[in-house]
């Protein structure tokens, strides 16, 4: 913007604090070396006779009538609303929803400028981004040792962004095939990713309620696939969802159930072609009434059962062909744990349990089926920026 207007004076970055992170200065120096000497940091109350301020069209949208800017909710597929314009009133909730699902021209231009200064080094990298203790916000990640052990089996490299310069972070994220980390500012680097790269955010219900969508625009700029993997809170046994305004960001607890499911997801996205081939093959075998072939393939790829509800469903139907309803229900139960919003899994589970006179055992499932009805929209809530993955805490149906 400064260049567009042909300005030559100082650039004032206004902050609420006198403590400016060194990273900001390094970022400007790496990407805008011709401007870095003109940047001054200003805190407190300041007055300017004139100012050029980046204008976000969301501001105008919430202050204008449909005659000025037409309603966009239906076209943007934000949700199935009763009528257009429901998100137009200038509330914080409405503004944030539209803001998190849009982007401005200058974000795209910043990405292009950054990539012009980038030098790819290791294309195809699989990265696990950890937090160096004491380097910043210290948020607990229970189960990290087991997580690292699992990821090492899939050729992931552990890194600390705190050790890297801004340009090195850009290079790294441009190279990445898969970037996996806990929720945090590191996901802003999605704007430098190549289209189709996978960015997996480990988070939980607190994040979903307070910070969901923070990085949508970064994924939209690059075309990265942005996946949310929800696990439990690391709250030392406390019930409920921690309030962010009181407790701050809660840590993440990766139980064995969560790690199994995460490994299933990793197994799928590290070789999507092999996964699709396996799914097609066992579905064909099921149509040809060959449950033995289904069983053989599923046993060869156990990780898929951990992360794919559809494969759990096929395995369950194969068990029914072999007159093994109890084993079929176990597969379906696993599929429900993976995708509790899928009504077809609940229906099939209840159908088998009723046919085998297990009505009493299935009674809790009837209630849970209805409880998850409101989440079925998540099956289709996918676009070029990625998908939403729902993780249910271990033992939620006990």
In short:
With 398 residues, the protein is α/β, with parallel strands linked by helices.
Could you give the topology of this structure?
Blueprint: E1 11-15, H1 22-31, E2 39-43, H2 57-61, H3 73-76, H4 92-99, H5 105-116, E3 125-130, E4 141-142, H6 144-152, E5 157-160, H7 166-175, E6 176-182, E7 198-203, H8 205-210, H9 216-222, E8 225-230, E9 232-234, H10 244-247, E10 251-253, H11 256-269, H12 272-287, H13 291-300, H14 302-307, H15 309-321, H16 325-338, H17 343-355, H18 359-371, E11 382-383, E12 386-388
Parallel strand pairs: 1-2, 3-5, 3-6, 4-10, 6-7, 7-8, 8-12
Antiparallel strand pairs: 9-10, 11-12
Helix pairs in contact: 12-13, 12-15, 13-15, 15-16, 16-17, 17-18
Mean pLDDT figure: 83
Number of helices: 18
**Biggest pleated sheet:** 7 strands, mixed
Lateral strand order in the biggest sheet: 5-3-6-7-8-12-11
Question: What share of the residues lie within helices?
Answer: 40-55%
Whole-number radius of gyration?
Answer: 24 Å
- What is the H-and-E element order? EHEHHHHEEHEHEEHHEEHEHHHHHHHHEE
The portion of residues forming beta strands comes to 5-15%
Question: What is the number of beta strands?
Answer: 12
Structural class: alpha/beta
Task: Write down the overall geometry.
Answer: globular
In quaternary terms, these chains amount to single chain
Q: Catalogue the unreliable spans.
A: 376-398
Q: Distance N terminus to C terminus?
A: 57 Å
């Amino acid at each position: 913007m400064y260049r567009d207007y042909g300005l030559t004076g100082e650039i004032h970055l206004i902050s609420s604090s006198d403590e400016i992170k060194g990273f900001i200065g390094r970022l400007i120096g790496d990407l805008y070396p011709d401007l870095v000497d003109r940047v001054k940091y200003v805190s407190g109350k300041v007055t300017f006779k004139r100012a050029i301020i980046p204008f976000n069209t969301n501001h105008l949208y919430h202050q204008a009538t449909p005659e000025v800017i037409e309603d966009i909710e239906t076209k943007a597929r934000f949700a199935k609303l009763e009528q257009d314009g429901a998100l137009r009133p200038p509330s914080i909730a409405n503004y944030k929803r539209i803001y998190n699902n849009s982007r401005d021209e200058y974000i795209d231009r910043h990405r292009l400028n950054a990539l012009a200064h980038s030098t790819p080094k290791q294309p195809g990298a699989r990265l696990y981004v950890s937090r160096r203790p004491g380097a910043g916000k210290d948020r607990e990640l229970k189960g990290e040792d087991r997580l690292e052990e699992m990821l090492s089996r899939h050729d992931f490299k552990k890194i600390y962004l705190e050790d890297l310069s801004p340009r090195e972070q850009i290079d790294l994220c441009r190279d990445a095939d898969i970037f996996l980390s806990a929720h945090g500012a590191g996901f802003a680097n999605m704007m430098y990713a190549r289209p189709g790269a996978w960015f997996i955010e480990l988070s939980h219900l607190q994040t979903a309620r307070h910070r969901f969508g923070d990085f949508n625009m970064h994924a939209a700029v690059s075309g990265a696939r942005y996946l949310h993997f929800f696990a439990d809170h690391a709250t030392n046994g406390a019930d409920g969802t921690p309030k962010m305004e009181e407790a701050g960001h809660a840590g993440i607890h990766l139980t064995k159930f969560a790690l199994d499911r995460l490994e299933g997801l990793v197994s799928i996205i590290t070789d999507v072609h092999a996964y699709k081939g396996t799914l097609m093959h066992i579905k064909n075998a099921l149509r040809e009434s060959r449950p033995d072939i289904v069983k053989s393939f599923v046993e060869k790829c156990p990780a898929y059962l951990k992360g794919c509800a559809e494969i759990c469903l096929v395995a369950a139907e194969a068990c029914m062909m072999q007159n093994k309803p109890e084993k079929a229900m176990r597969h379906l139960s696993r599929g429900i744990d993976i995708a509790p919003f899928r009504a077809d899994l609940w229906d099939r589970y209840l159908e088998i349990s009723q046919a085998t006179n297990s009505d009493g055992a299935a009674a809790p499932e009837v209630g849970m089926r209805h409880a998850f009805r409101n989440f079925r929209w998540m099956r289709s809530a996918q676009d070029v920026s990625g998908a939403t993955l729902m993780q249910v805490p271990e033992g939620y149906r006990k």
